[in-house]
Every structure is written in C-alpha cells, then in structure tokens.
Amino acid sequence: MLQYLGYENSVITLILSTLFLALWNMWPTKKWDPRGQFCYVTGGSSGLGLAVAIALTKRGAHVTIVARNEERLAKALAELEKTRQSSNQILRSYSFSLTDADASHAALETAAKDHGNRYPDAVFMCAGAARPGFFVEEDAKSMQKGMDNTYWVQAYTALAYTKQLVRSQTSGKLVFTCSILGYMSLIGYSTYSPGKHALRGLAESLRSELILYNSSVHIMFSGNIDSPGYVEENRTKPKITLEIESTDKPTAPDVLAKELIYGVQRGDFHIAPDMLSNIIRSSTTGATPHHNVLLDVLYALIGWIGLPLWRRGVDSTVLKHRKEHKDYLAARGFFKSTD
Amino acid sequence: MLQYLGYENSVITLILSTLFLALWNMWPTKKWDPRGQFCYVTGGSSGLGLAVAIALTKRGAHVTIVARNEERLAKALAELEKTRQSSNQILRSYSFSLTDADASHAALETAAKDHGNRYPDAVFMCAGAARPGFFVEEDAKSMQKGMDNTYWVQAYTALAYTKQLVRSQTSGKLVFTCSILGYMSLIGYSTYSPGKHALRGLAESLRSELILYNSSVHIMFSGNIDSPGYVEENRTKPKITLEIESTDKPTAPDVLAKELIYGVQRGDFHIAPDMLSNIIRSSTTGATPHHNVLLDVLYALIGWIGLPLWRRGVDSTVLKHRKEHKDYLAARGFFKSTD
C-alpha cells in the first residue's frame, strides 16, 4: 500500500513540478513595453502589417507604417488615428518599394526624421506576398520575384536597420514574419518556401551576431492569414495545393498581431502563434532556443509522429493527381513550348 | 527468478528487433546504379564536384562536368579520363556561369547534344561558394552575390532540368548539395545561410511536386569540406567564426562524394554524410521523411540536449567578443561611413 502511495506521490510531484515549470516559463520576466517606443511596420497598409500597427498604436507606441500603395496607406493611417491613445503619439505613413535595397534604406531614414533622426526601437517586417504555382510553369523572372517578395522585402530592411543601429550605437529589435512554410514545404510553393526558409537562416545568423550589439531578433512562423494577400495568392494557387489546404482555416490578422507582440514582449526568438506552429517549430528546432522545454518535448513528440503521417497523406494525394496534372499541362500547351 | 529471465528476454528481444529494424532500413532495396547513366555535375572542376565526378566515372557513368574556370575544367577532365572504366564512357567538360539562368539552361542543352539530345539521368548540383563576413559590413550587392553563389547557382539548373524532364516525359534525379548551415546558423554566415536554407525549402517543395513526374529529389547537408573553396572562404571569415569552428575538421571531398552517391542509391531525400549532420538532420526533421526511425530518435535525443548547449557556448563566446569587435569596426572606419 505504502509503495502505491509513494508512486502516486511521485506522479503528483511530477505533474505539479511540470505545471510549475510550464507556468514559470510562460511568466513574463522582463516584459518589453511598446508604450512610447518608436515602432516601424513594413507592409503596414493591410493584412498582418496593419493589424500589428493598430495593436502597437493601441499600446501607446509611435508607429510609422511603410508600404507601396498610397491609397491603402492613407486609409490605414486613418485607422491608426482612430486608435490613437494620446495626442503625443507620432503616427506616420510612407510609400516605398521595399523590394529595393536603396528604397528600404531611404524609408528608414525618412521615418527617423520624424523622431529627430533617431532610428526605430523596433522594426516589424510584415511585408511580403506569395504567388504559388507549379515549378515547371515558373521561369527565372517569377522565381526572382518570389525571392523579392519573401526574402529581400525583409532582408534589405534588416540590413539598413542593423547598420543604423550599430552606427548610432543604440540597440533595437528586428522582428521578421515568416510562415510555417519556412519550416517545411509542399507542392506549389517553389517560389515561396525558399525565401521563407532563407528568412529563417538570416534570422538565425543575426540572432547570433546581434548579441555583439545587444539587439534582439524575433521571427514569427504562422499559417495562412485571413488577409487581402491570402485572397490574392489563392487565385494562382494550384488546385492540388488548394485541395491539400482545404481543411486549413486562415487566422485573423489581429489574432496573429497579438501573438507576435506577446512573443516579442516575452523575448521569444521563434514566435509560434498557435498549437500547429508550435508543433512544427519544436519538430524543426535544431540549435534554435527551446521555449518551455517540457511543452516543447510534448510538441516535438506529436510532430515526430504526426508530421510524417501528414506528409504521407500529401504524397499520396499528389500521386493520385498525376493524370489530371498531365492533362492540365497539355491543355496549357506546356509540351509544345520550349523555354 | 522467472520474472528476471522474462525481463532479460524482453530486453534481448527489444535489442534484436531494434538491430533488425536498423539493418533493414540500411539495406538497399532497389539500389540505383550509376553504370551507363548520364550524370551531370555542376561545380565539377574542383572540390566536392570533382570528387563526385570521379566517383561516378569510376562507377561507369557517362559524366559531364560544368564549371566556370576553363583551365581547371581541362585539368579535371584529364583526371576523369584517368579513371575511365571503358572506352564507351562519354566524358565531357563545359564552361558556363551557372549563377545565370540562361547559361544554366544552355549548359544542360549543350550537354544533352552529346547524348542525342537526351537529358541527364541525374544532375548533381555541387556548385557554390561562401564568403563569410559581418552583417554590418555587407551591402545589397554582397548579399545578392551570396544568394547567387548558394541558391541561384543550383536553383536555375534545377528549373531548367525539371522543365526538360517533364517536357521530354522522362524521369530523373535532382541532387542538391547543401550544408549543415542550411539547418541552422551562427555569426558570420548572413550571406550564406539564407541561400542554403532556401535550397532546403526548394528541395522540400520539389520532393512533393516531382512525385507528379516520377522524379526524385535529394539534398546533402555536409559540414566544412577540405577543398579550394574552403581555403578561399576562410580568408574572409571573421576571426570569431574561425574561433567557434576551430575544433571542426573539414571532411575530404572523396569521403563526402561517396556518401552522397550512397545516399542517392539508397533513395534518401536528406543525405547526412556523418554523425553530426545526422544529429542536426534528426533535430530539424519536421515533415521531412525519417531515415531509420530508431536511429533518428537517438540522434534527435542527442541533438535535443546537445545542440542548445552548443549554442549557449557560441552565444557566450560572441558576448565576450563585444569589445574586440567594436575596436575592429572602429579601426575599419565603420562608425564614420554612411552607406
């Protein structure tokens, strides 16, 4: 009897200490506060970027949004004005094409002018776009455009901002937004996944390097976002990819914006906004810092078994699609073209 | 007593079945034979590429090597001739700049002419280069060059080859060569890791997509290679990165070439040529197919504990380097420049 009690006690102790450690890890120790901070948000005119800008404005930050489309920028700025917390908050919008290195640099310099040539305390890189398609229907130009709209649109801003930080001997926060397609990939994403994987690589290199300058790096890996960009990407998305994703429900931008800011506040390097992204994060963690070690073990175990099963399902769906795909390519004249 | 025997028996059964499963997984079921196959090797004039070309020639394949430097190509072709197994083997070399999309296409078309306009049975993409450095000392041009020499130098060949395969309705093998810096990263590799991560993303997308065409994708993740390229990259490698890597011993190209070909023969998607790369592979596996599930669990466990410990060590080395790095940047005039 005693030994059973002992066994039960051990189990209870184990559960309690697990819970304690789990809660301990979740407890914000030195929470970053956006109030009064100068936050720079790219892709800030719509989707996730706009949601992040609104959330930061609501938390009392000075917010500058940058995007290409002037009309959408004006509307977005009007929305920010509506959520302003005080008359002191500096809210601005600028139109720049961030797939260009010089423009990415100029955009930051312009934004800094509104703050007495001080650079942002945090840069939220939310710009990006996906144009899914079949690899055999891509060409060098569409592949390069894919890399521009996933990788360079954030990397150029990161480069300009890091130089400004180090040169002005201040510290800051680089916040990248990636995708679970930066952890893994599937049919249809040959112009998207490479750039998103590249962002993971850049962030991992910079996390290590920016220790030199007391600056931090964060990167969020989310699933599909319920945004104008998602509607746009589904127009070119192959039918087979849509079929595989048919059970996915895109997440609302404001939910992701909240998770992104929480992640930065907690100081997470990899920010996973929901259970699925946590499972994939923990299953591809490598040398990346763990979050809560105990929860991560659980996620990794689920991923270890679940992800290969999911992949087998996808593989067999692709295999069944062979005949239809050949007909599709023939109808598009692929077998007659010569590029 | 009986229960102890039973326990021992269970353990023995467990060990035996583990060993059986491990051996079963290692056993090549339908081994690819390079003999008589048309193999195309990029970066084939030196380092890993040349070693792969020699190994394939020794196994009786027709081998075409492509690289930029004509002098080195001529020497390499002479080496291939020395290892020729029969007079029927077609051994060729061509000079093309594979960071260019059109040249990558033209190189494959030229090679196909020697085989009656038949495209290669397997393409080994071994071209690539690293120029490590500090992120704040990079510019848009050096970042783009980094992407050219890691990602595009293989992606353009993959694009041209896949189109040719699908259009000619044949099947083939795409073999990428990546690095463990495509799984993780550290200080000094901001122009290298992104492109290598991008290759992982591309390969993962194509593995899924090329099921449509009965073609296979393989990608090797190796550590440093004892090659002319390694000597070259160490010239620009930051001192701190050299210090972190000081215990690494680069692997001989012929050892890696052998492992690469074994991996392709076994049909592995991710090819890890040694224990360290297997540990990192298993720790970042995600939805990527497992190799031997039991061995992979062991590798993943080692990685789960070991890799974060290694990273902490690296982080503290970087932290200690702050003062020296600031002096270095000052001496280079970084704080006075304005780019």
TrEMBL record, chains A, B:
| Record keywords | Endoplasmic reticulum, Lipid metabolism, Membrane, NADP, Oxidoreductase, Sphingolipid metabolism, Transmembrane, Transmembrane helix
Q: In which pathway does it act?
A: Sphingolipid metabolism; Lipid metabolism; sphingolipid metabolism
Q: Which Pfam families match?
A: adh_short (PF00106)
* Lipid biosynthesis recorded as keyword: no
InterPro entries this protein is in? KDSR-like (IPR045022), NAD(P)-bd_dom_sf (IPR036291), SDR_fam (IPR002347)
Where is this chain primarily localised? endoplasmic reticulum
Q: What is its EC number?
A: 1.1.1.102
The subcellular localization recorded is: Endoplasmic reticulum
**Reactions this protein catalyses:** sphinganine + NADP(+) = 3-oxosphinganine + NADPH + H(+)
Q: List the transmembrane segments.
A: 6-26, 38-56
Q: Does the keyword Transmembrane apply?
A: yes
Record function comment: Catalyzes the reduction of 3'-oxosphinganine (3-ketodihydrosphingosine/KDS) to sphinganine (dihydrosphingosine/DHS), the second step of de novo sphingolipid biosynthesis.
* Protein name according to UniProt: 3-dehydrosphinganine reductase
* Taxonomic source organism: Lentinula boryana
**Lineage, opening ranks:** Eukaryota, Fungi, Dikarya, Basidiomycota, Agaricomycotina
